Amino acid sequence: MADRKTLTFALMDPPYENARTTTALRLIDIAVRRGFDVNVFAYEGAVNVPFAKQAPHANAVHGRDVGEEDHPNPKDWVAALFKEAEKRGSKIDWVQCGLCVDERGATEWVPGPRRGSPADLVKFAESSDNTLVIPTK
Amino acid sequence: MAKKILQVVETAYRATLEEQDDTVVWITHAMKGSGGDLHLLLRGNAVNYACKGQDASGLAFGEKKQTQPPRIADDVAGLIGKGVEVYIVEEDIAERGLERGDLISGLKPVERAGLPKLFASYDQVWHW
């Protein structure tokens, strides 16, 4: 669509630490569903959100094996967001801060994200209708 | 013309020992170098970033010494040297017992009541 709008999200939190990560992904999800293109700049711990080696586990406290537990991994949420965007004709451009990736050894991601730098955040901000920073507190 | 963006830093000393800097001050340097028109507001505990005489050296675990501790006041001064406007909330300075002489030069003090007007002068405000 010619008048498609673009939103940029800068994320900073690692997965499994607080609700901000889930909230950020929910915001991206609704943006995609409403026809926005979305840019994501994953900074610091957020580069681990699409980390490919996240693995589901069983949960003895719940009395469920790994299949029954159906443990959600944020990497799967990220992959699902890319699929949803493709289905709806939206675009997600997810940039992983390269230095943040290197210092964490988080070099393997689900398909979709790409390596970049703060220069990409500059480009994102300039080309977007608005930018939301969701930082670690 | 590049969008004029104000980076508001409130959460302070976020992994500064591991990062050897503040991550938002750092990315402001990097984005400025990439052509961004970014400026900085220090508020809350982050006003201490402007304090001279900070010394984070001496960290060691066993034989492993950190040889390059963060020098955040120098990094903030470096931004000012690059033409970045660095604002600082006056009340937050006073509440922490700091005086202007404790701080680096080149800062632009702003009262809390003046923040809405300051924010309105920017295209975007990013709160870190």
End-to-end separation of chain B in angstroms reads 24 Å
> Superfamily at the CATH H level of chain A?
DsrEFH-like
Order of helices and strands of chain B: EHHEEEHEHEHE
Classify the helix fraction of chain A into a percent range: 25-40%
What is the CATH topology classification name of chain A? Hypothetical Protein Ychn, Chain: A
CATH architecture of chain B: 3-Layer(aba) Sandwich
Percentage of residues assigned to helices of chain B = 25-40%
Order of helices and strands of chain A: EHEHHEHEHE
Oligomeric composition of the shown chains? heterodimer
Bin the strand percentage of chain B.
15-25%
CATH class of chain B: Alpha Beta
Number of beta strands of chain A: 5
Mean pLDDT of chain A: 96
Q: Please name the two chains that share the biggest interface, counting residues whose Cβ lies under 8 Å from a Cβ on the partner chain.
A: A-B, 17 and 18 residues
What class would the helix/strand composition of chain B place it in?
alpha/beta
The CATH C-level name of chain A is: Alpha Beta
User: Which overall shape of chain B is indicated by the principal axes computed on the Cα atoms?
Assistant: globular
Unreliably modeled segments of chain A: none
Q: Mean pLDDT across all residues of chain B, rounded? A: 97
Helical region count of chain B? 5
How would you describe the overall organization of this protein?
- The complex is a heterodimer of chains A (137) and B (128).
- Chain A is an alpha/beta fold and 137 residues long.
- Chain A contains 5 helices and 5 strands.
- Chain A has helices at residues 19-33, 66-69, 74-88, 98-104, 118-127, and strands at residues 6-11, 37-42, 92-97, 114-116, 130-134.
- The relative contact order of chain A is 0.25.
- Chain B has one domain: DsrEFH-like (Hypothetical Protein Ychn, Chain: A), CATH 3.40.1260.
- With 128 residues, chain B is of the alpha/beta class.
- Chain B is globular, with a radius of gyration of 15 Å.
- Classes of the chains: A alpha/beta (137), B alpha/beta (128).
- Chain A binds chain B through residues 10, 12, 43-44, 117-119, 121-122, 125-126, 130-131, 133, 135-137, and chain B through 2-3, 5, 11, 14-15, 23-24, 27, 30-31, 34-36, 124, 126-128.
